Amino acid sequence: MTAISTTSPLAGGDRRKPAAARKWWTPDTPAAYLLLLPVLALFAFAVVYPLLQTIWLSFWDIRGLYPPKFVGIGNFVLLMNDPTFRNSLLTTLLWTCCTTLFSVGAGWAIALLCALAPKETLVPRVLIFAAFGVSEAVTGYIWLGIYRADAGGLLNAVLHGIGLGQFAHPWLGDTHTAIWGLIIAYSWAQTGLPLILIFAAAQAVPKNVLEAAYIDGADSRAIMRSIVAPLSLPGVRVALFINLLGSLRAFDTIYVLTGGGPVRSTETIGYFMYRESFTQFKLGYGAAATLVLLAAVLVISIPAIIQRTREAT
Amino acid sequence: MIGKAPRWVPIVVWAVSIIWIVPLIGIVVTSIRPPADTVLGWWNLNHIELTLHAWQTVWSKYPLANGFLVTAELAGLGTIGSMLLTPAAAYAFHFLRFPFRRTLLIIIVNAFVLPQQVVVIPLFTLWRQMGLIDNILSALIPYVGLSFAWSIFLVKNFLEDFPKEMIEAARIDGCGPVSTFFHVVLPNSLSSIFAVGILQFLFCWNSLLIPLLFLRTNVPLPVVFAQIAGTYDANWDMQSVAAIVTTIVPLVIFLVFQRQFAGGALTNSGSKE
């Protein structure tokens, strides 16, 4: 500690010169690493090592307690020839696109409506946001109750109630409808965040811009269409990205609502890796599937990574 | 908004919000009606009897009370861990100059895109070798380790507006980098550390995949609940109680701080009246 405090007064002067950043040793170095040590250790242990190890494991055939066998890219070849995985790729694509479009679309539409009458819509806004605060596992349970095939299922009861009884269906028991049931349930839960983000962006439109438009004779519909909607686009962009990432990594709702079934028709890659690694104990195979998920995540994240890197440094 | 909003706007928003309100009400109603009355749906009005029976008996049927304590412990420790370690790192990255600063920072802040799935397989084998399966550390370490990706970014962003004069004054008065952090920066960035705490608490409380894989005997609420919801017992009343117990704490925190979620975005854009 004494060494740090004696060297540190020197640090004040040249600390922000670019040359100092390139030096291998600066007066701040011991203090910086002392402060960073626990973070770097935990981060390396919990993130960096597992990430590299996942890549390494993906080259091995590991089944339960048998000795691991090096197979190179064998796992990836197997994945591409595995109809279940190919199906899970399609499921992931459908799931990710639809949940993001539905949740951000609904959130955007409701946010713009709310921006027209912020005070009167406070309560419904908070209630929609509340669904986002419900644990994902509980969301799954809530929708389990809605899709139930017996008389206690809300959706079928509503269909009967409005005279569309012939469309009543065991929604989660059918491979064609289960994925849509899951998509609706997840979008329902995820609408709150885009709503609040885009509403905040719409509310942030400067008052003098709105006043000027009003004086120039624009009615609230014109103001909404030509000023508020375009100016809320940054909020939409952020919401799109957050929900895309969230959908790709989703696990909890799927686990509770369908468990990937029926006949693995609702397994996204994020669920497929769980199933292969932790119920079949094919760790290498699961790791390879995880890397496919990671690749998808990275492709989507390129703009965010560039922006974050620029902002942070 | 300027001018009078059309009357239909609140009506439409209320009508749409029914889709979100009704399922939430359904859970509460199911939890306080006898299961025999809700066989035909929690909304049917044939026989109305409210009971707290499920609320009283669920505790002996499912390990909810223990789950609650485990969750509180996990979420509490995970939150404290992030709140204690993040500020020092954010300060070091923002105000100090040292080798690999840029590289380390870029790696850490971009790790936020990583899904949990990427880390669980190696951690599972590692915990098994170290005998840490079922140890609280097996969940806490990834909770805290994964949080740095966003928490450091959040606090560092807050420090962008931190007056540099205060740092320089402290340095001139003879404070070293470490004591500058503890005496000047830390006491003045509590609001951002608190924000980290709220987000991390919600993340830890709701986490399912990590404790599902790494914990066995003392499991937190989402794991207990996922096992309950997976059974085909016709005790929807008790399952609904379990659902409410699982989600009530994060839900209340969410609603209490939702103004801050929106308010933060508002004040940043400088549009105050």
Structure notes:
The complex is a heterodimer of chains A (313) and B (273). Chain A has 313 residues and is mainly α. Chain A folds into two domains: 56 residues, no CATH class; 237 residues, Orthogonal Bundle (MetI-like fold). Chain A contains 17 helices and two strands. In chain A, strands 1-2 form a two-stranded antiparallel ribbon. The longest helix of chain A has 34 residues. Chain A is flat, with a radius of gyration of 26 Å. The two termini of chain A are 28 Å apart. In chain A, 45% of the residues are buried. The N terminus of chain A is likely disordered. Chain B is mostly helical and 273 residues long. Chain B has a domain of 152 residues: MetI-like fold (Orthogonal Bundle). Chain B has twelve helices and no strands. In chain B, helix 6 runs antiparallel to helix 9. The C terminus of chain B is likely disordered. The chains are: A mainly alpha (313), B mainly alpha (273). Chains A and B meet through helix 1, helix 4, helix 6, helix 7 and helix 8 of A and helix 1, helix 3, helix 4, helix 5 and helix 6 of B.
Give keywords.
heterodimer, A: 313 residues, two-stranded antiparallel sheet, 2 strands, flat, disordered N terminus, B: 273 residues, MetI-like fold, disordered C terminus
CATH class of the domain at 69-220 in chain B: Mainly Alpha
Q: Per CATH, what is the topology of the domain at 69-220 in chain B?
A: MetI-like fold
Main beta-sheet strand count, sense and barrel state of chain B:
none
CATH architecture of the domain at 69-220 in chain B: Orthogonal Bundle
- Structurally, the number of domains of chain A stands at 2
Overall pLDDT confidence of chain A? 86
Distance between the termini of chain B: 12 Å
User: Using only CA atoms, what is the Rg of chain A?
Assistant: 26 Å
Strand order of the largest sheet of chain A: 1-2
